[in-house]
Design a protein that fits this description.
heterodimer, B: mainly alpha, 21 helices, 0% strand
Chain lengths: 40, 477
Amino acid sequence: MTASVGFLAIMVTVALMITAAAPVLLLYFLYRDWEKGTLW
Amino acid sequence: MNPANGAILDPTIGWIILGSFSLLWLFLGWYWGRKAGELDEYVLAGRQVGLALGVATAMATWVTSNTTMLAPQLAYQMGIWGMLGYSLGAVGLMLFAPLARRIRELMPEGYTSGDFIRLRYGVTAWRVFLAISLLYCLGWLVSMGMAGGILINALTGISYLYGMTVILAICVGYTLMGGFRAVIGTDFIQALLILVGLTVIAFLAIGTIGFEQIHAAVVENRPRLLDLLMPAAIMFLFNNLLFGMGEIFHSNVWWSRAFAFRGGVGFKAYLISGVLWAPIPIVAGFIALAAPAMNLNVPAPDMVGPMVSAEVLGVTGAILVLIMVFAALSSSIDSLLAATSILIVEDIYRRHLKPKAGAAHLRRASSVIILGLGALTWVLCAPRIGNLAAVLNYVGAFVASTIWPIAAGLYWRSTNPAGATIAMIAGSAAGLTGYYLIGWYVAALLGAFVSMIIVLTSTWARPKRFEWQQLSEAEPA
């Protein structure tokens, strides 16, 4: 059973979207911890 | 490619990049280490680490050079299941989330995973566990040190010995100066570098070639890679899942973070880091699938990632890969140095040799151990013996055998010390037997399975009540 181009595209696009969003999320968490004084 | 030595980048560019980031890490190590005089500050960053740094350090540490280099290699050799199988390493992080919360609740003043095993199961189980844990830590450290030398050499042409020495010396330098705070702080920056670099390369590969062309080229040249029913790859998938769980459940790298995170952070940090980590091997692996569409002649599968990046982005792509690899290696080596040093200080030095040592004494001992570990790793890496992946697959049998004793020990009162000890020994033996008789891809599977059977049957047959209060211990004075 061979993976179709659609399967490959959806899998990689979802993975890439999460990877691209991760730095933004990390920076948001950093900002929030900084504001609350809970960085470390 | 640099025709002189077969590397992708010129050595001068390599030295400039390595030098710049080395200076940055060392400065940050010094800056964050200024207030790390106390033992808890130095080895656990004051036990008040927040969510942002918690998520980033868990993710960056789990993104080793293997994730950025081996994931493309696995995709190139095992196709879609290689990518998905590697991605299942994230399950270990996610499943550790409730354990991290439990660890913080049960042992608010604990230091190491060894502390838990000693208090929960007694001295024999503790020594067996220490042997497994130290073997694993050293194996991972050596494999990262060697990977550093090999990758820097392949990417820049800088000799193996120089590359390996630089990466080890820098990691030892900033971990020594800044302790755990430096490890966690630099992990945040390293996580950002890895994520941004990977995103840029993948977007450009898709934009330049496109899914349809990549898919068509793989169907034509390497159709096996798109086979959804490749048996060895499916076996690899489950083995990798259990290997990852074993690595995370037992290793002090992850326990020390559970102790260092502020109350209520551990669960969220590990869960989110798992969700954010899972797509990384898929994206990194996909880059390798673009190789057939580019008609690239890949001399060694482990260089497929950098070669595609260099082809898509030229020198900029190769520089991005070097920065990502350097960040991935540093974030793992520093964590290993810090977590292994406190394991040795607490479980070997204090508990075996100097039971009356105070906090100040142990703080100094931690520094000495970090230096010693760095030196030992260098000595073991210098001859460049053995295959790195083989070393790590070998220890898969050992670490997977600790999954059940750890998880059961944290949640079930009735799991008994003898059962846990036998589970670790017999699980390791079974995993090793499978490694030699069948193949590396069953070592963790067998180790975890045998260990599970022993823990379950011994808990059922000979339950022994444990009082959770016994896990509380006073900190050193």
